[in-house]
Amino acid sequence: MTNITFYIKSDKSIIGFKSKGHAGFGVRGTDVVCASVSILLINTVNSIEKLTSEECSYKINDRRATIDFQMDTVGDGSQLLLQSLKMGLEGIADGYPGNVTINIEEV
């Protein structure tokens, strides 16, 4: 199961997320649910780095299947991308509730 936690401030801005685990929908290397989640996560991190001037930090551990991402500065560009990520992952979680869970942690 892939567990994703979004860190959200009281003003509803997303300041980070943590994803851990494999979806377990299919055989490793051919799991379309895990691949879908990974693509959304990595694309969001890359987009924030390349398309915004906002600072972020992250750690990726392929062996443990974890991504820990934090915004150092929050702006409109990163918020649009992070809200889009959240929406996409919620869609996957709705379609595959036994493989992906979304949690919200207020910070």
Automatic annotation (TrEMBL):
Family annotation (SUPFAM superfamilies): TM1457-like
Keyword terms of this UniProt record: Hydrolase, Protease, Ribonucleoprotein, Ribosomal protein, Ribosome biogenesis, Thiol protease
GO molecular function terms noted in the UniProt entry: cysteine-type peptidase activity
GO cellular component, one term: ribosome
GO biological process, one term: ribosome biogenesis
InterPro entries membership: Peptidase_Prp, Peptidase_Prp_sf
Protein name: Ribosomal processing cysteine protease Prp
